[in-house]
Design goal:
The chain is of the alpha+beta class and 125 residues long. It contains 5 helices and 6 strands, in the order αβαββαβαββα.
Length: 125
Amino acid sequence: MTVRDWMTANPQTISPRDMLALAQDKMIRGRYRRLPVLDVSGALIGMLAQGDLRPFAGYLPTTRVDAAMVEQPFTIGPDEPVEAAAKLMLERKVGGLPVTDDAGKLMGIITESDLLRVLLRPRSQ
């Protein structure tokens, strides 16, 4: 089984110039724990997780995403085995990985929840 089989394709994203209040709203409405951050050309430049918002709790409407995001996030390719994604998440202590193609373009995201779905799938799959 590959990452491609279990990732969420075309995930919700955010711009580094957006305010953290918008990021929080997207996370709440979409029930996301993290958002890939894309620049104006569509290149992946960071990740923003719920925990990254905490230090800015009183300043979400006036603080930009680029102040809180993790730059140069760990990524994984779509044809990697899901076990490789799980190992990387454990080693790097992250709850999700952007899935990128060979050119670095965002294709999707694979998260802890996706890996739990793999674990709980019917054995016939």
